[in-house]
Amino acid sequence: EILMTQSPATLSVAPGERATLSCRASHSVKTSLVWYQQKPGQAPRLLIYGASTRATGIPARFSGSGSGTEFTLTISSLQSEDFAVYYCQQYSSWPPPWTFGQGTKVEIK
Amino acid sequence: QVQLVESGGGLVKPGGSLRLSCADSGFTFSDQYMSWIRQAPGKGLEWVSYISRTGNSIYYADSVRGRFTISRDNAKKSLYLQMNSLRADDTAFYYCARGEGTLTSWGRGTLVIVSS
To answer: Is the pLDDT of residue B46 over 70?
Structure first.
């Protein structure tokens, strides 16, 4: 099973600042990596797939990069609605399991 | 707009059973790969099970294999999760989601509590 590790666990950022979230895979997942955003009481929402492609309707301030075992989600200028928990997930494994990181909480500084 | 709605959650005693359902209001359910994902309260996400469009390819997480059964009825545009031999560590919100690998749309979840 591929283990996904996210860092940091919590990131304190002021509105308007840049946030950089990291995700590491225990084995190469090439670019089979997605990012989700989850707000309290809500289901996760797809942000990025294929490591760097924004999903439909996702603002351009969200960007993903990386390949292999190291990945980054960048939020260029944090808006109030961006404070949430972010999860990475790999889908390189076939057959599944597809595994998630433990999440990074982005909170207001 | 695609909407997935889960139901069937509730309080069950250890060793008991529950059947979760997920109704898809979209037009193309039969074209969709589907999964169940769960999230223990205050914890992270765990993929539980996957079913292909026709149901002839099914996979489970090790933690539920042999106890849970995923199925679908394309005519009813519904996905199911039969959960048997439930344990306390199965307590979680259970989400259904569309997609194979990339989970593009999620329901709001249904809460399963396993407790005596």
So the answer is: yes
CB B85 within 8 Å of CB B27: no
Q: CA A60, CA A42: separation in Å to the nearest integer?
A: 22
- The residue among A35, A42, A45, A30 whose CA lies nearest residue A75 is A35
Q: Min CA distance, A7 vs chain B (Å)? A: 14
- Which residue from A32, A46, A97 is facing B103, i.e. has the nearest CB? A46
Decide if pLDDT at A7 tops 90: yes
Name the closest residue on chain B to residue A41, using Cα atoms: B108
What is the rounded average pLDDT for all residues in chain B?
96
Contacts of A81 (CB under 8 A, 6+ apart): none
Task: Please give the Cα distance from B73 to A75 (Å, whole number).
Answer: 40
Q: What average pLDDT does this structure show over A35-40?
A: 96
- Under an 8 Å CB criterion, which residues of A touch B? 32, 34, 36, 42-46, 49-50, 55, 87, 89, 91, 95-103
Asked if the model's pLDDT at residue B1 lies above 80, the reply is no
| Dihedral, CA of residue B59, residue B57, residue A47 and residue B44, to nearest 10 | -10
